[in-house]
Write a structure and sequence with these properties.
The protein is of the alpha/beta class. It is 41% helix and 12% strand. An 8-stranded parallel beta sheet has the order 2-1-3-8-7-4-5-6, with helices on both faces. The radius of gyration is 17 Å and the shape is globular. The structure holds zinc ion (ZN). Zinc ion binds next to loops.
Length: 299
């Protein structure tokens, strides 16, 4: 069974009533996995990243102001959360979780984080519920390993991975692929190495063939040594923000395809759950569980 990374703080954030962010889903996925027979002891608990370790990668002024609560009201509105110490701690722990997941993937072949995919975070500002880009930090972490020279970030969340594309644009060791809804946030997109913008109401067949095409192009052009996979489920037909028409089985097929390809090619893969915004948390958890099913985290 692949290592799973979780911290209770993933779901600990006081938000205004009816806030659009489904903060309860993380512990909901954890509890559902325990209900399916995953032992509590199987979950690895990450440490929060130290701001000093990311200041050299990020704009240190941004990190300083984020941590001290000195970002402007406008900058916080772009992030979409009210500032709190809890928000900072959660953000640093979630990013620490994806970095830990990337190390565990190199060790075990695959590993999964029960949060992650904060792909709208740029070097000097946050956006769309994202403050620190865990995908980019995890890619840099993997590149520290001596046999890893090329990391693919394969982003299948419905929103374009704009922050990741921008952060990695001058790093030839990182290749970014984004498959997303064309007419969806972010409306001003950045250039990934490969971008696939899908029309509203795209269904399973077209979606899955796009995923396969994107994957094979990335394998041909880039030949990665490791993969970071953003398995956002805001592609689902019932998602409140997605506008695509992907079924629960379509999500499972997508996730199975990525894991099977990685296994076949002997490429380690670190997966994160990404976005998913159904207001019905139980229904949302069921869709996120497809990733864990595909990874063999439960039978
Ligand atoms: Zn998303």
């Amino acid at each position: 069974m692949p290592p799973l990374v979780f911290h209770p703080i993933y779901s600990q954030l006081d938000l205004p009533v009816r806030h659009r962010f489904p903060i309860e889903k993380y512990v909901g996925i954890h509890d559902a996995l325990v209900g399916l027979g995953v032992s509590e002891a199987h979950f690895r608990r990450p440490d929060a990243l130290k701001p000093s370790t990311i200041s050299s990668i990020y704009d240190p002024n941004y990190i300083g102001q984020l941590c001290s609560g000195e970002l402007s009201p406008k900058a916080m509105r772009r992030i979409g959360f009210p500032w709190s110490q809890q928000l900072v701690e959660r953000t640093l722990t979630a990013a620490g979780g994806t970095v830990l997941t990337s190390s565990l993937a190199l060790e075990h072949g695959k590993a999964l984080n029960l949060t992650g995919g904060y792909h709208h975070a740029f070097a000097n500002f946050g956006s769309g519920f994202c403050m620190i880009n865990d995908l980019y930090l995890a890619a840099l972490n993997m590149l520290q390993a001596k046999n890893i020279d090329r990391v693919l970030i394969f982003d299948c969340d419905v929103h374009q991975g704009d922050g990741t594309a921008k952060l990695a644009e001058n790093n030839e060791a990182i290749y970014t692929v984004s498959i997303h809804g064309e007419k969806n946030f972010p409306y001003r997109k950045q250039a990934s190495n490969l971008d696939f913008g899908l029309a509203k109401a795209t269904e399973d067949d077209e979606f899955l063939s796009t995923v396969e095409q994107a994957w094979h192009m990335a394998m041909t052009y880039f030949q990665p040594d490791a993969v970071i996979y953003d398995a956002g489920v805001d592609i689902h037909v019932d998602d409140d923000l997605g506008h695509l028409h992907i079924s629960t089985d379509g999500v499972l097929q997508r996730d199975r395809f990525v894991f099977e390809q990685c296994e076949k090619l002997g490429i380690p893969v670190a997966a994160v759950i990404g976005g998913g915004y159904q207001r019905d948390i139980d229904a949302l958890v069921k869709v996120h569980l497809q990733l864990f099913k595909a990874a063999g985290a439960y039978t």
